[in-house]
User: What shape does this take?
Amino acid sequence: MLRVLIADDSRVMRQIVIRTLRQAGYDWDVREASDGVEALAAVQADEPDLVLSDWNMPNMTGIELLGAMRSEGYGTPFAFVTSEGSAEMRAEAEQAGALFLIAKPFTAESFRDAIEPVLA
Assistant: This one.
């Protein structure tokens, strides 16, 4: 079973992401983190198979989390689920090594479309 870490400072948003993953047919082992610092500690303690992170979080943003993980040698697949998906953000995410960026509002279908090519 795939182990996924969901990092978002909004508990409600984490629940929505989990519910959407389930609706998309992904019954994964899910862990949660409320910011990038917590997420980095979770990765260091027990590296997941996938990190789904918000972009804007207190203490450490999603893009900072991705940079910190890569600088520590973690090649964990990483993607953003965030409220805004501007072209600049998408380019920055791609340059940093993110697999994809899903912008809200999202659907089970948009998750499948983004995740399936990565799992294949």
User: Anything to note?
Assistant: DSSP finds five helices and five strands in the chain. The two ends are 15 Å apart (CA to CA). The domain at 3-119 is CATH 3.40.50.2300 (Rossmann fold). The chain has a mean pLDDT of 95.
